Amino acid sequence: xxxxxxxxxxxxxxxxxxxxxxxxxxxIRFEEIGAAAGARTLHQTHKFRGKHADVLGMFxxxxxxxxxxxxxxxxxxxxxxxxxxxxRPNRLLRNDFVPGGKLAFTDVAxxxxxxxxxxxxxxxxDAVWFDADNDGRRDxxxxxxxxxxxxxxxxxxxxxxxxxxxxxxxxxNTIAAIAFDYDNDGRLDILLGNYFPPVNLVDLPTPHVLPNxxxxxxxxxxxxxWRNVTEPGSKDLxxxxxxxxxxxxxxxxxxxDAGHGDLDNDGWQDVYLAGDYGTDRLFFNNRDGTFRDAxxxxxxxxxxxKGMNSEMGDFDRDGWLDVYVTNITDxxxxxxxxxxxxxxxxxxxxxxxxxxxxxxxxxxxAKFGDFDNDGWEDLFAVDGLRSAGKENYIPVLLETIITPxxxxxxxxxxxxxxxxxxxxxxxxxxxxxxxxxxxKEVAAEAGVDNxxxxxxxxxxxxxxxxxxxxxxxxxxxxxxxxxxxxxGAGHWIELKLxxxxxxxxxxxxxxxxxxxxxxxxxxxxxxxxxxxxxxxxLHFGLGKATRVDSVEIRWPxxxxxxxxxxxxxxxxxxxxxxxxx
Amino acid sequence: MRGFFxxxxxxxxxxxxxxxxxxxxxxxxxxxxxAVAANPDELKSxxxxxxxxxxxxxxxxxxxxxxxxxADHPQAAYAWLxxxxxxxxxxxxAGSITQVILANKALTNFGKSIDLKKTWxxxxxxxxxxxxWPVIFGRAPLGVAxxxxxxxxxxxxPKPRKVYVRAWIALGDGYWKTGQAEKAKATWREALxxxxxDPQLQARLARDGEDLExxxxxxxxxxxxxxxxxxxxWEGE
Lengths: 581, 237
Hints:
The complex is a heterodimer. By secondary structure, chain A is mainly beta. Helix content of chain A is 9%, strand content 33%. In chain A, a hairpin with a 5-residue loop joins strand 26 and strand 27. In chain B, helix 10 (181-194) packs antiparallel against helix 11. Chain B has twelve helices and no strands. Chain B has helices at 2-11, 17-38, 44-56, 59-72, 77-90, 96-116, 120-131, 140-155, 165-177, 181-194, 199-205, 209-219.
């Protein structure tokens, strides 16, 4: 470890020396257009009843999520936005953008048949688009505190609820869902991250449902893995649970997010689980349908932090995916986030302090994206737990925490929060990647430093202008749509990958772009980052370059092919056929 | 496989290096515990014991040991003080919320020590501990009160011992943390006359504003190990 740190120190010094004398880059700028575009949806958390209502509401303040995906195949990304209170509908915001016009969305959730899910016993928490049957139409999984809902896309703007026959029938308090092909069989599987243990919170069988330790809890819901066994060509979507078989059953933490990516460059998808109240878990894929828990050897220790987000991207362009995890860094708790730099040897080094990405207050989602098209992945992070009255909940909570012998698991032992604020009114953070193993926080300058209680982020170029836009969901508040209006952003390419032998969504496919001696990689992911799925298209900023030297796609099937790609446009690449248009 | 070799080696009378080290540590801790138990109301042997605990990471063993010691000797003021240090020693190895719980338990035990015997070391220790708490919890004024008493005790000695500078530094930090910046500077300046050349005093007096704030918070970072080695107390004896 000492040798590795010394090496990184040298890199920092070397990288720092390259910025001398360069002109400052043009600013990143966004404008918030949610209301004008018809995308300012209001989220409401579930309102519990009875004497535990206040405390349970506090512990289940998630559920405001966004899934970005082109459900109608018209070429632009649409938004599925969740709500969480009983009876409140989810929204399917169809993107009606016409080139030359303004961004506009229409909520078609009811007509499409995907508005439901928040009933008296279930709470919607997350969602993910994925083509479960490889028919070219993206299906939709809605994760709940309850059983998940699976909607098959019928291709006529409508969906069929196929949950009952899908096999996805085990109750869980699921807060995160990702879709990826863990066994590379060409079908997308589902991994669910579960927060509470599997008890129904709206009808508590016992008051002992809260974490058994606030730094090392092991009584959470863990994660469950569901293998897609849908027959090729069949309309009957089928999944079987393989959690234990795959080696994930021993994890019983309070999972808040799940992320996947090929962390060891072997062509197989690995998994990073972010755990609240304790240890995150890193699982390497054994390439035989199982995973091995490599947390201790890969990360060097078992952390005690409040992991909220699992996002992957190659921030330093060394050809290895890194991992960004948010935690809590506030006036009363100084955990610091983790930017796990992938050392390329199965180990990771946390560089959050060194890179300036340590502090995002009470963190939630954080997403990589090259918002200025300079070829370097920036980071947008949302934060804030509960913005309410002037009184602060923390001193009240302290008295509970320091009570000798207190049973933290008991709902009855937690003080009511009433109208108090808890880590509220926090400014969002936009970290601009300076390309020198350092980031600069520019949220205010960019116009995204709102103080809402952020939860999820969806990143996509929603208006086709070559600049990545942002959709931010907020708990108990309206969502925000930020259109990227950065002037002087660089050239770009965007790849829409279509699997043929591989899964149709090409989730897990990696594109490698060579550009003036530099190597840029991106992978298609199926919902990385807390409460938010970003576009499935791979976006590469190119800076001032007017051509790329090469583009190589490595498909989940193992096929590797080179394609030629024009700049400043979206290019569809079908597996085995090269660039189509 | 490793287990098989371990059994083989043990059968041959050869212990694995790791096991040998663990056995040696355990034996050393037992010996030190015996020494502390023989003199429960004393600091030196307990100081050696806690240093060994920090080296081995056996924090829970140490806490359990002092818990029993204070139960057996409830009137031993220094046993309670050592019990508090045992919690402080574990803080850097704990998660952020457990740190709060440990710190609070330490304060309780420091308080029991002060109730039995108002010593400079106990008042300094509890007062300084209060300063590590975030401002939001309102504990800094309690720290100032303890540290003012500790400084007062040190003033009564004809020749100031070198270690007393710590209370002066902490008292200034306490004033600063309670919004009394000028009083903080005055305290550090007065202390510098008594302890000329002290680098920590000089470092504080050389800073202002955000620079000073950053410096003080760096000193009061609960994630860093607090120096609980008491040997400066008997330096020069």
